[in-house]
Structure formats: structure tokens, C-alpha cells
């Protein structure tokens, strides 16, 4: 369906697909932020023959397949700082369903050293605009843990409205966790 993901720019913030050669910086930022991200990280329930979470290369291969099929688009967040580009996080528009639903969800994480500076909110707004204008989606959800105040602020500042609580919605940090659902709809479709 899609040959190549776009590069989305918002001044010094760039959303671009992660590549195999980004592995070292991705691993470094994830390692530095392990404690910061761990309470919010997706995990897999213990199911026979499922195995561990994918390696970086498996993740990129899967993301490439999903983007070509039009089901998920994942981007690294890059901050231009003079003549350097710093990797500061990741954002995904996933679970895309067309037809009568025309929707998906956005998930994200950011390096703690760049938190509370508006970059995540700007990335959500930029990706939402892409989803509404280019993909012609109608509905996008952000599902977050109720106690994740920073993520709630991102959703609200990006114009998402609280819709309700989903009990035991996702497997996070080793158990099924409740999630608050925030929604934004494209009323022009």
C-alpha cells in the first residue's frame, strides 16, 4: 500500500522512520531511560511459545512491513541542535483500520532529558495532522495509564478529549493495566 514513510518536520523537531543504522543510538537512549520508561512499558503476558520482546532489528523489520501494509507508522523523534541531530524518542501511529472505522492509536515515549519541553506534544500534533490530512483517518486514540500525569497532559494539550477508562486494557510492566482513553476525531471526513 505505502512505499515509503514521510519525514514530518516541525521546526527543529523531525519525525522520521527509524533505520537499522539507528540501533546504537536507540539502544543507548533506551538504556539511559530504563527506569524512567519501565513503569509504562508494554510487556507480554506469559503465554506458551511466545518468547521475548523483539530485538531492535526485528522491531524495524516488523515496522517496515506494517508501514508498507498501511497498518502502522513508527517514527524516531530527532531534535536538530545546531549541526547535530539528537534522537529523543519514538512515536507510532498504529492499529490502523480503514473502512467504516478509519482510525488508529498513537503511542509514544521520550527521553527523560527532553521531557516537559513540549516536544512530545508537538510530535503528537504533527502525527495527528498527518493522519487526518494524508491518511484521511477519522478517529485517533491515545491510551495511557491513569497515573501517568505527564502523558495525560500531552494528550490534552494536543487536543485529545477524555473518553473513558478501559479496565485491564494493555499488558504493561508485567500485568494487565487500566488505561484512560483520549480521542481526537477528524470531523471533516
What's the quick description here?
This protein has 189 residues and is of the alpha+beta class.
Give the percentage of residues in beta strands: 35-45%
Tell me what the CATH architecture of the domain at 8-138 is: 3-Layer(aba) Sandwich
Number of helices: 5
Low-confidence stretches: none
Oligomer status: single chain
The CATH H-level homologous superfamily of the domain at 8-138: Gcn5-related N-acetyltransferase (GNAT)
Largest sheet: 8 strands, mixed
CATH class of the domain at 8-138: Alpha Beta
> Rough shape?
globular
What proportion of the residues is helical, as a percent range? 25-40%
**Elements, N to C (H/E):** EEHHHEEEHEHEE
Rg over CA atoms, rounded to whole Å, is 16 Å
